[in-house]
Protein: Chaperone protein DnaJ
Amino acid sequence: MTTEVDYYELLGCARTADDATLKAAYRKLAMQFHPDKNGGCKDSEAKFKAVSEAYEVLKDPQKRAAYDRFGHAAFKNGGGAGPGGFGGGGDFGAFSDIFESVFGEFMGGRGGGRQQRRGADLRYDMEITLEDAFHGKQTEITVDVSTACDACEGSGATPGTQAKSCGTCNGHGKVRAQQGFFMIERTCPACHGAGEVISDPCTRCRGDGRIEKTKTLSINVPPGVDDGTRIRLSGEGEAGPRGAPPGDLYIFIHVAKHGIFDREGTNLRARAPISFTTAALGGEIDIPGLDGERIPIRIPAGTQSGREMRHRGAGMPVLQGRGRGDLIVRIDVETPTRLSARQKELLEEFRKTETGDECPQSQGFFAKVKSALGG
Structure:
């Protein structure tokens, strides 16, 4: 019995590894075990073929989704990525996938294998608050999706019966025809590439192997997600016809506009209007943080409108990482518009004491104006 080694273990990668990580791991191992570098060593050649096969499956999003859900069984019995063509016993592994990528479109798909049309991917748009994006969120969604028929278990045939091999293509899913010097291969018109025909279809799904259902799914929104973040739920899309692999469900995150903060990556921005006395004399204001804590912002004496104050580590958390961004507060000095008689009196007294040195920018500006007008 042949032991089937997990593709991720072969490449030394986690199941969550991205495409770049998988590619780097494959290149390293391919260089290490390439037959030309090992004097034709049979063990190295076998290892080279194994890692090549693993990478050829995992680099393809559809094949990887099928493998994540069904393992090696996804590519057996006409599963769509396995070796053999026409059900033959040849073990070509990754090299048959390379042949397919070059000639597949011209030849109408995989050479000789049954076609299993993978289920469609689905999209779900989810709106969350900025607080949800800060803390993360565990929630449930409901989606209407086609799932495997529970009456026939996805086979499409009436329980107690089974599909029969297609007589037109002899179960291959494809037929060939000679045209001049070329052998043309196309999808079987009788079974539409399935390789099987159902003489007694299931009455519930009418032979399709799928029915419409409403599914409730648990969604984990991690802290730090941003507008446009996409979460993939592998295998939660449309079921494939007659037991074919399902598609994926993609959750697109939309973060609602916040009343106080604007987001720039992991940083948060806020506008804080302060009184002209606080700007002149200095002081401290509090900004309510998304974590519920009050964030103190110190206002130095003489602060001008438009100045930005940065509070480090008070922004958004880093998605799937450590640390937080910063909070940047823009100061706007507000001129009072509703003064009491006493306040006006005090301001008049203050104006009488002004020398011009209190506001050097104003003094410098009007000095330039005076000079430009000839003194």
